[in-house]
Amino acid sequence: MGEEETTTAETATETKPLTARDIRVSDDEREHVVGVLQKAIGLGMLNLDEFTERTDRALASRTRGELNAVLADLPGLTHPEAAPAPYAAPDAPSYTRSWAPGQRMELNAKYSSLHRSGPWQVPPAMVVRNKYGSTKLDFTEARTSTPVIEIELDSKWGSVEIVIPPQAAVDYNSITEIKFGSLDDKTGSNGRAGTPRYVLTGRVHGGSLVIRHPRRGFFG
After folding, report:
1. Residue 210 has what pLDDT?
2. Mapping DSSP to helix (H, G, I), strand (E, B) and coil, where does residue 144 land?
3. Residue 99 to residue 173: CA distance in whole angstroms
4. pLDDT tens-place string over residues 113-138
5. How much is the average pLDDT of 24-34?
6. In what order do the strands lie in the sheet with 197-205?
7. Half-sphere CA count of 215, side-chain side, radius 13 A
8. What average pLDDT does range 137-159 have in this prediction?
9. Angle at which helices 27-42 and 48-60 pack, to 10 degrees?
10. Separation of alpha carbons 8 and 56, rounded Å
11. What is the C-alpha separation between 197 and 116, in angstroms, rounded?
């Protein structure tokens, strides 16, 4: 009898191990998600009614799992430890939220080469200025913060090379000037669907602008 009571008591006190989805969230996390929803409505991912409904759910969430449900269908905007494991294309970039809305990066060089590659952090908007030097922006492994990246070019007497992942696309229709130079889009993705989408503006004076996919082989 005593043994049966002990077994029953042990069974009654067993608890299910906590997962990352069961972790409680703070007010700061709820407010952060509301900010992400505001960004999503600005990008046209949500309409006003959806934004209002999801904001209410976010503010009422108690765990990461509940909070993630609000962002589940928005690309790359869930907590990596709490989200279910969705299928991802092998070369698909990861999305992060390390840049404030409206913030843009400035890259400046003169009489030298400007090169970015590897898993570098890319904001929603950036300005690239280089005079008398070459520029290479390799987005193959880049960590992007939004599906659309705006890049303003100001290149004088130097070449510009932009490398985008196979699933990405470019839009260079807003480049205002290419003078004493050329534009060579080897990807054929201008104006087509793709994620991320790199929107190029600005001017290239006295040099070539080449857009290509990563090379397969030992030499990149």
Report:
1. 97
2. strand
3. 26
4. 999 999 988 889 999 999 999 999 99
5. 85
6. 104-110, 125-131, 148-156, 197-205, 169-179
7. 6
8. 93
9. 170
10. 42
11. 18
